[in-house]
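Bumping with the actual sequence this time:
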Amino acid sequence: MGCGECMAKFGLITFNILFLLSGVAVLGVGIWVKVDKNVVNMQHLVEFDSDDKSLSNAAWVLIGFGSFVLLVSAFGFLAACCAEKTRFFIIGYIFFLVVIFCGEFGGGITAAVFKGKIDSKLQETLTSSLESYKPGNNLIAKAWDYVQTWLKCCGSNLGPKDYKNANFTDLGQHVPKTCCVLKNNDPENPTPENEAQCQIDALQCQSSNTCPSKNVKIEGCYKEFEKEIKSHLVLIIGVGVGIAMFQLLGIVMAICICKNKKDDGGGNYVY
C-alpha cells in the first residue's frame, strides 16, 4: 500500500466520523423543524390557503437524507477498510455520496426558492389567514395564538385593529387573549394580566387612533414573523448546502483511493 493511499484511507476514515456527525446534525434540524410547536404553527400560517409546502418539504428532505447519511457512513468505513480487497465498497460509497450531495443540495435550494417568495406573499398570506380566524380550537386560531404568544405581538400589521371584524362568541371580547399582555407564555391556556382592561383597550384601538399599550399588545406580528421565518430558512439552507459541499471532500478522497489502486495496476481487486 502506497503512502498516498494510506493518507487517503486515513482521511476517508476521519471524514466518515465527521460525516456521521453531520448526518446527526441534518436529521436533528429536520426533526426540529417538523416538531417544534412554534415552527409548526408558523408553517400553518405560511402555508395557509396555498399548495406551496416548500418549508415542510425541505424539512422532510433533511430528515430523509440525514437518516440515509447514518447508513452510508457505515458503508464508508467498510469502503475505507476493505478498499485493498474489493472496489465494490468504494465505488458504491462514491455513488451514495453523490446521491446524498444532490439531495441535500436540492433541499437547500428548495428552501432558498421559498425564502425568495417571502417578501412578496407573506403579508398577504397573514392578512388572509386572519380573515379566517374563528375563536376556539381550529387550526388557524391555534396557530395565531402560538405566534402571538411566542413573538409577543397581535394580528398581522395593525395590531388589535386586525381583529375588528372577527366574530368572537363573547360580546365583551375584541381580541384573542393572546393579544393581551400575559402573566404566562402558554398559548393554549393564556392568562392575561388584566383581561377586562385588555379588551377595553383593544376596543379603543379599533375605534380610534389612540391605543393604550399597558394591557394589550399593539405591535403587529408581520415584521417579527418575517424575521423568524427567514432565520429558520437560512438555517435549513446553511445545513443542506453547507454539509452537501463538505461531502465533496469524501467523494474526492474515495476517488483518490480508486485512482491509486488503478495506478498500481489494480491486480488485487476482487469485484
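The C-alpha cells above came from a reply further down the thread. Residues 88-131 form the longest helix (44 residues).
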